[in-house]
């Protein structure tokens, strides 16, 4: 029987596992925490689709156009066409497995407007779209577990891929419960490990998604794509631990951004961009907020208690709980913060990386969103990409016997075990915090060459220190061994941002404010003998 190892159990990992199981392929599904704690459960706003019976002027062609335009033409026509054309099928499938979408009094599904969309096409489940989808998928996973087709293993973290001669045969994992490594051989490995939040520390996302897997695979020969495109969400609320998202739904329902000058409200987005100013794409609004000297506020109070309670309960609750703000009467102080990573593992249309039998899906793959993701499109992409990878794997022959990885495994386990003495005064978490601070400063909403060079200098220094660190027993073994991968990923992202000498979408260079036709291609970075080699994907190698 064909065997697949899926690493990460958010929406994309589960979508892939379930579809593989439908094809009769056996899946080992691993993650450190249960799916109920994946970042996917945080998604509140909704999922995009064009459903023929509710079109009212909208069309799949328009969804494709909005997605390509929002991504500043880096999304890849064929990829985006595939994504948007499957919206209806995916939504109907989700309903079929028990996802309960919000409906009006006539039982018609409700939709909301999200930034960069010509029509309302974001379907939602109250304030918990991600949670609802995760719950429905968990039930499907359990069904296939009972049938013996899915083997769910928790407390497992990725360590490295088992690669021989450009082909992936499985992965080395770390089993936190037994505190020991575990190798799993498979006919295909699917990475579904989400975003890269550790690069910036405080973001709107989950700290589980730290980017280590991408960094480590990069060091093992996997190409990465579009790392410079990091989405800052324009409206987040500061708290001690993280940035709380004030969903775009608040502006979709009519919320208005403003600042005050001389006691007068200035609705700066509407003044500059007209009636749809508050629903410009996230990159545009984040930059505009960044340019305002005063504190920016979001006002939803005028929508009234009924609309807020019915349509925006998550915004109301986040504001009361984390900011002591009563949104019925008060405006919300907002700031942009890192929210989503358009870049990640470079994959072909079938979601295979440049390493044969190594696939990547969901947020850790770079494919559909180009230079800027539209709200509601990533849940769709997580579902769609999981299915695409599963169909591809199901259609492939079994791999046959794997080479002997015992020497590689012994070396890696030895490194994982080692409690080195150190000539560095810094503990692991201190370096991670320093990296995050440096990245926030040098890879912000606006960048320039000098600042990126400073960031590169910092990352190189932390990398040089990381090799000399003492094992830190106050944090998990995973936190110790993941440091170099995270630092390498950050260094690669800075290199990509330096390479792209133009401004496009989420990548804004104050020293190159123009958008250059010669840069209308994805950035591909590889790690060749310790060197970071960046190029543009002019031949569209990763769009085929
Ligand atoms: C606050 C918030 C709100 C959002 N709202 C929306 C929305 O309304 N609509 C929308 O379309 N998108 C939204 N997004 C984005 C969307 O939620 C994510 O892009 C999507 O859920 C990612 O799914 P995923 O399966 O790729 O990854 P995740 O759900 O992040 O799952 C990653 C999995 O990988 C595991 N993992 C991580 N590292 C390792 C490792 N080293 N080893 C093993 N396992 C690992 C994790 O434990 C987890 O199981 C939102 C994001 C945030 C942060």
Unreliable parts: none
Beta-strand percent range? 15-25%
Structural class: alpha/beta
Tally of separate helices: 16
For the largest sheet, list the strands in their spatial order.
13-12-17-16-14-15
Question: What is the strand tally?
Answer: 24
- Nearest-angstrom radius of gyration? 23 Å
Molecules bound to protein: flavin-adenine dinucleotide
- CATH architecture of one domain, by name, is Alpha-Beta Complex
The span between the termini is 29 Å
Topology overview:
Elements lengths: L2 E5 L3 H12 L3 E6 L15 E2 L11 H11 L6 H9 L1 H10 L14 E2 L9 E2 L5 H18 L3 E5 L1 E9 L2 E9 L4 E6 L2 E4 L20 H8 L4 E2 L4 E9 L4 E3 L3 H4 L3 E6 L2 E3 L1 H6 L8 H10 L4 E4 L5 H7 L1 H11 L8 E10 L2 E3 L11 E3 L4 E2 L10 H18 L11 H12 L10 H15 L3 E2 L1 H18 L10 H23 L8 E2 L13 E6 L2 E6 L8
Parallel strand pairs: 1-2, 1-10, 2-6, 10-19, 18-20, 21-22
Antiparallel strand pairs: 3-5, 4-5, 7-8, 8-9, 11-18, 11-23, 12-13, 12-17, 14-15, 14-16, 16-17, 23-24
Describe the structure.
- It is a single chain.
- Among the domains are: 104 residues, Alpha-Beta Complex (Flavocytochrome C3, Chain A, domain 1), CATH 3.90.700.10; 99 residues, Up-down Bundle (Methane Monooxygenase Hydroxylase, Chain G, domain 1).
- It has a six-stranded antiparallel β-sheet with strand order 13-12-17-16-14-15. The protein has a five-stranded parallel β-sheet with strand order 6-2-1-10-19.
- The protein is built from 16 helices and 24 strands.
- With 544 residues, it is an alpha/beta fold.
- The chain is globular and about 70 Å long.
- Flavin-adenine dinucleotide binds next to helix 1, helix 5, strand 7, helix 6 and helix 12.
